[in-house]
Design goal:
Elements: H1 2-5, E1 9-12, H2 18-22, E2 30-33, E3 43-46, E4 49-53, H3 58-63, H4 71-77, H5 83-88, H6 91-97, H7 105-110, E5 114-119, E6 122-127, H8 128-131, E7 132-134, E8 137-138, E9 145-152, E10 159-165, E11 176-184, E12 190-198, E13 205-206, H9 208-214, H10 245-265
Parallel strand pairs: 1-2
Antiparallel strand pairs: 3-4, 4-9, 5-6, 5-9, 7-8, 10-11, 11-12, 12-13
C-alpha cells in the first residue's frame, strides 16, 4: 500500500492486458506485482454477499460451484480469450482495464455487483455500474486496490444467460453481448429481471426500462415479445472495423431476445 499511495506505480496481476498494451515499448513505470497475494483469490460466502476475490481467475470462476444465477458469468468466463488467458486473467483486472468489450462486465452488472476498493485511507464500496465510467476509465484512485467483487444474495435461484456475437466463434472481441438474470415467483411470473448489454456503448449498460416492463410477465406465455427497440435507447453504439452502429443495435435487440428465451427455457 505504501508504494500505491505514491501514485507513481502500476498494478500487475495476471498481466493479460498489461503486457499487450505495452506493445514494443519498455515498461518505464514502477510496477507492483500483487499476484502472490493469495488472500485476494477465491470465492466465498460472506454474510449477505458472495465474495469474488480480485485475483480470482476466470478458470476459478468456471470451476467453483456457484448458484444458478451465476451461469451467465460462467459462460462469459469461457469466452475470455483462450484457456491460457482464463488461467491467468483476473476478475479485478478485467474490470479495472474497463474495455467496452470486457466479457465479464455485463453478467456482473446483471448480478447487481459491487466492487470493494482498499487504500491506506480505508475501504470503500460502490456499485460496479458506477465504477466503470468510460472506455478504459474507472473510479479507482491511483492509491487503491480492487480487492473483491461482491454479489448480493437473494437471486440464487434465478435463471441466467450470456450470449455474445463476434466475427467468429472463438477468441474474438464481441460485436455485441447480453447478460440476463430472471427470477420467477411461485405464480410463474417474473419477480425480478436484470438485463445488461456490452460492446454497444463506452460502458456496458443495464436496460432498466426493459427490466421494469418485464416484471410481472408470465413465463408460461413467454416474455420476449415485450422487448421493444426503444428499450435499447440507453445504448450508444459506434461504427468501427467490427460492425456499424446500426448493425450493433439490431444485433443487441436479437441477443436480448435470445438471452431472455434462454432464461425462460431454464426456469
Amino acid at each position: 500500500m505504501e508504494e500505491l499511495s505514491s501514485g507513481k506505480c502500476r498494478i500487475l496481476s495476471g498481466g493479460t492486458d498489461f503486457y499487450p498494451a505495452q506493445g514494443e515499448r519498455v515498461v518505464q513505470d514502477a510496477v507492483v506485482d500483487i499476484s502472490a497475494l493469495k488472500e485476494l483469490r477465491g470465492v466465498a460466502r460472506d454474510g449477505e454477499f458472495i465474495r469474488i476475490g480480485g485475483l480470482t481467475t476466470w478458470t476459478d470462476v468456471i470451476r467453483t460451484p456457484l448458484p444458478r444465477c451465476f451461469d451467465a458469468l460462467k459462460s462469459a468466463a469461457r469466452e475470455v480469450g483462450s484457456v491460457q488467458i482464463q488461467n491467468r486473467g483476473t476478475v479485478a483486472g478485467n474490470l479495472c482495464n474497463a474495455s467496452p468489450a470486457a466479457d465479464g462486465v455485463p453478467p456482473l452488472l446483471a448480478l447487481d455487483a459491487q466492487v470493494e476498493l482498499i487504500s491506506k485511507c480505508g475501504t470503500r464500496r460502490m456499485p460496479l455500474e458506477d465504477f466503470i465510467v468510460g472506455n478504459r476509465k474507472t473510479q479507482r484512485n491511483l492509491d487503491e486496490l480492487l480487492t473483491a467483487v461482491l454479489i448480493p444474495r437473494g437471486m440464487d435461484e434465478a435463471a441466467s444467460s450470456f450470449v455474445k456475437l463476434g466475427a467468429r466463434r472463438y477468441l474474438v472481441i464481441s460485436i455485441a453481448m447480453v447478460a440476463a438474470v430472471i427470477l420467477i415467483d411461485d405464480a410463474g411470473r417474473i419477480a425480478k429481471a436484470r438485463v445488461a448489454v456490452g460492446s454497444c456503448s463506452a460502458v456496458a449498460r443495464r436496460l432498466r426500462t426493459l427490466e421494469s416492463d418485464l416484471k410481472g410477465a408470465s413465463a408460461r406465455d413467454g416474455f420476449t415479445g415485450r422487448v421493444r427497440r426503444e428499450h435499447l435507447d440507453p445504448l450508444e453504439p459506434i461504427d468501427d472495423v467490427r460492425a456499424t452502429r446500426q448493425y450493433r443495435k439490431d444485433a443487441a435487440l436479437t441477443l436480448v431476445e435470445r438471452a431472455l428465451n434462454d432464461c425462460r427455457e431454464n426456469v
